[in-house]
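dude i think i finally got it to work??
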Amino acid sequence: RKPPTVSYDEVIESDAGVGKWMSLIREYGFSYVEDCPPNPSATQRLLERISFIRNTHYGDFYDFTSDLASADTAYTSLALSAHTDTTYFTDPAGLQLFHLLSHTEGFGGASLLVDGFRAAEILKHEEPYAYSILSTHRVPTHASGNEGISIRPTYPFPVLNFAPETGELIQVRWNNDDRARIDPRMAEAWYFAARKWVEILRRKESEYWEQLKPGKPLSKWSLIKKRGIGTNTTM
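look at this
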């Protein structure tokens, strides 16, 4: 089955195209955009059809390659485990777009998407105790790899976060690389829950793999992502 997709031209040329794109992301959690010129300016123009671009310590719109220009695993060719981004922000990144601009004389670098909300439903059904732990225990997170940068959220958040009025799950925050120390009094219970959670994320039926390629950016919301090992990639 073809993944949810819109064309670059229909998004650029009409508000109806933007609406179609947003509807696909709302329904499926992600969407591809076909036939986008593989350069930063066209990609930025695509993003700005939705809204302004959020500025962070990385900048607002930025492109990078695996050269460790920033002390972050994104700037390497290492394989990354399934994760959500910027858990060290009080308000993490929401809608994101990734565009592989160049992949010459390299290999690998496939991307994985996992539906974090579906994984949470499975966890709740199979191991309610683990679901309760990940819904209530607050996990310290931080970003401190670069000189002059030390970021933490206003207060720690659980992995699973809910709307106060309805109790509906509204956010998954999972990034083992950004996680700080777990309270020793909760360590045994938390690691039990985390182990079960990761086992669900790694199930074959939980995984959707796709090799990104120039001209076909990926936009996502509320999905956990992962990158396979690869070389010579510019995003």
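The chain is about 25% helix and 15% strand.
im so relieved honestly
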